[in-house]
Write a structure and sequence with these properties.
There is one protein chain. With about 325 residues, the chain is mostly beta strands. The protein has one domain: Outer membrane protein transport protein (OMPP1/FadL/TodX) (Porin), CATH 2.40.160. About 5% of the residues lie in helices and about 55% in strands. A hairpin with a 4-residue loop joins strand 1 and strand 2 (about 55-65). The protein starts with 6 loop residues before the first helix and ends in a 5-residue tail after the last strand. This is PorV/PorQ family protein. It holds the Pfam family PorV. InterPro entries: PorV.
């Protein structure tokens, strides 16, 4: 749930909190759903780790009235056809490749969003209710739940936003398949190097906050420039470039140049981290992204290449997404 959605956002280094205003706002800041005209749908696909992992997203949003809107989305991140070698060695200590089986592991996020205008002009809010489903083959599965809260404020040409993820802390409760776990424990006697400690049955995701500001500049030759910045905060000590025991902060900057609201070129930089090197020194890394987009009669097609030039510890990924204003089919 921390990766993000929409190739447009990836191209701008996910600096979306202040200016998001479409169906994908259900992820970035549900407040932005209020800007859709009628109803919208969105699809996204990305490959990670040399096509080993598949990341997919589908979203839908609809205006309720002039002051409110709702949306729903599903995210899946999965790795399929993983080799299960826990039974590779039989009871006699022989290697038997016929004992290898396959399994899949996947995480799902189901989100329902609601947004509404407030009496103060330019001020509005939105909230998410999330259900998290995690499955690791036949070995274990979990259910979790959590909530997000966001706000946006517009003042003349400036846009401001705040998004608090997992505001109540998100809890996941695991159910371990004891029968499958017993098989792995039994195999441990033949391969003592395996770590077969029973995992914890619960996990929590602590709250995170994002502050954003954005402004769009329109030029006379049908050109435009959108500039946006985020401050992404975690309330624990991490390897972010600003890191304390109370809070860790990393910035993100995104730019989108547009021509006649038809073609777009995007650039973003974010994920600033202090990474420990082999010699014990620290090196500040960052993640530059690049993207392009096209808009024609309510259909938006976007592409992003993340981690351009491999400047960070993350691997580059190709991200594709399509967004459709569903009112064009009426």
């Amino acid at each position: 749930m921390n990766i993000g959605v929409d190739a447009r956002a990836f191209g701008m280094a996910n600096a979306m909190v202040a200016h998001t205003k479409d169906v994908n706002s259900g992820y970035w800041n549900p407040t932005g759903l209020l800007n859709i005209e009628d109803s919208e749908g969105s699809l996204m696909h990305a490959n990670y780790f040399a096509n080993i992992a598949q990341y997919d997203y589908i979203g839908f949003a609809k205006k309720i009235d002039n002051r409110s809107a709702w949306g729903a989305s599903i995210i899946r991140f999965g790795v399929d056809d993983i080799l299960n070698t826990t039974q590779l060695i039989d009871a006699n200590g022989n290697v038997d490749y016929n004992r290898i089986s396959l399994f899949s592991t996947a995480d799902y996020g189901f989100t329902f969003s609601y947004a509404r205008d407030l009496p103060v002009r330019g001020l509005r809010y939105g909230a998410n209710a999330k259900v998290i489903r995690r499955v690791i083959g036949d070995f274990a599965s979990s259910w979790g739940f959590g909530f997000d809260f966001g706000m946006q404020f517009e003042n003349k040409d400036w846009q401001y936003g705040i998004m608090i993820r997992d505001i109540t802390t998100t809890y996941n409760i695991w159910n371990i398949n004891e029968e499958e776990f017993k098989k792995i424990q039994d195999a441990q006697t033949l391969n003592p190097l395996q770590n077969q400690d029973l995992p914890e049955s619960s996990e929590i995701t602590l709250p995170k906050a994002q502050l954003g500001v954005a402004r769009k500049f329109n030029f006379h030759n049908e050109m435009s420039l959108l500039a946006a910045a985020n401050l992404n905060m975690e309330f624990q000590q991490t390897n972010d470039i600003i890191s304390t025991k109370a809070v860790s902060i990393t910035p993100a900057f995104g730019f989108e140049g547009g021509y006649n609201n038809l073609a777009f070129l995007r650039l973003g930089v974010g994920n600033f981290q202090k990474n420990l090197q082999l010699d014990g020194s620290e090196k500040t890394t960052f993640q530059p992204n690049l993207g392009v987009g096209f808009h024609y009669k309510g259909i938006f097609v976007d592409y992003a290449l993340t981690d351009l030039g491999n400047q960070s510890a993350a691997l580059y990924s190709n991200v594709f997404s399509v967004k459709v204003d569903l009112s064009i089919f009426r």
